[in-house]
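The methods section describes the discrete structure representation at length, but only in general terms. Each protein is reduced to its one-letter sequence and a matching series of backbone shape codes. I believe one specimen quoted in the main text would settle the matter. An entry of this sort, consisting of the sequence and the corresponding backbone structure tokens, reads as follows.
***
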Amino acid sequence: MRVLVVGGGAREHALCWRLAREDGVHVWAAPGNPGMRSVARCVPVAADDAAALADVARREGVDLVVVGPEGPLVDGVADALRPQGLAVLGPGAAAARIEGSKRWAMAFCRRHGIPAPAFEVAEDVPRALELAARWPLPVVCKADGLMAGKGVVVAETRDEALAAARLLAARGPVVFEEFLAGVELSAFALCDGQRVWYLGEARDHKRLLDGDRGPMTGGMGAFAPVPELDEATRTQVRGILRAAVAALAAEGVPFVGFLFAGLMLTAAGPRVLEFNCRLGDPEAQALLPLLAGPIAEHWLVAARGGLPGDGDAPRAPEAALGVVLASPGYPEAPRAGGRIQGLCSDGGVHGALCFHAATALRDGEWTTTGGRVLTVVGRGSDLATARSAAYRAAASVQFAARQWRGDIGLPPGGGREGSGLPDPSESGGRRL
């Protein structure tokens, strides 16, 4: 089978790596990145250039196109590729709106009785300030459109709520949501427009600093599975994903691809914080290594709308944990160009997986090109073993003033103390 993976980040590297592990599967990436070259053939085509992607797919005899990032999906790249006779794993723009518009997603949940927080929408700055002045605290303020995980503010005080309203409403509509207490997780499913194949769950760490402090980022690390999720709650999670897919089909916008539900496990049960129209990043880097058995043929069947029924994807009885290494200045103003030490010639690391997001290879030297540079993933029989493997491998990769969290996989407030793991400040990194 020939598969074209669209995108060039660490999530797409993980997709290419997992597909390339299967006998008879050949992988292309567009545009890819230098770290992927050991598992995929990279072609210099932008992820949103549907015409060029179709040309590559026809030239290489591609059987399946897997679209990684949300931007091209929201902009309709899958809609442009399907009429070319290609099997595409990724929703059309109408279904991808479930991520592209937070207000649409919350209204969708309300229409179909999918459990989610109460919300109101402000279309302009005066309305946003009005809502910020009266919503019960804490309040969750969300930019309506795509913000790469950075358009959310949890305001603890009235001044914070008003400041968030001014900031976000200057860019467009703002969704004000009820704050929900509980344990957060991400759940993933493979969908064919009608049926749902549950892939599993993961948890990411969005804030830059240890202890969930600092600015929101695209994600500083993730792990899978989530220990707090018992089978009864997992059944409820599956039910939410299936209800969403059935509701989208009923509205005439069948969802084909990976559906991602960001959930809060509250005392009253799981509640939807958001839906995304693709695999998460960095969650995919932790989840994909745990998927067992052949997946490429199953994904092709889903893209063609032919899953035999609802079910669960086989998963290895292990854990995986990924640590993101980020450039100095991330997320506000990342500084690129730093020389990376500790990578193997193929871009890997000893003792763990290494998925590239923002790297370049020049004259035999690896350098940074953006914010989130690498995700280093450890695996093991349990979360503690996977965590140890990830951090020990991550400590061997160095670049100037790199940033990384030391508490990925620990309970909130767990800290680094007593873990026996290296401290970033002892090996050239920023102490968080």
In short: The chain has twelve helices and 25 strands. The chain has four domains: 2-90, 118-178, 183-312, 319-430. Confidence is low (pLDDT under 50) at residues 416-432.
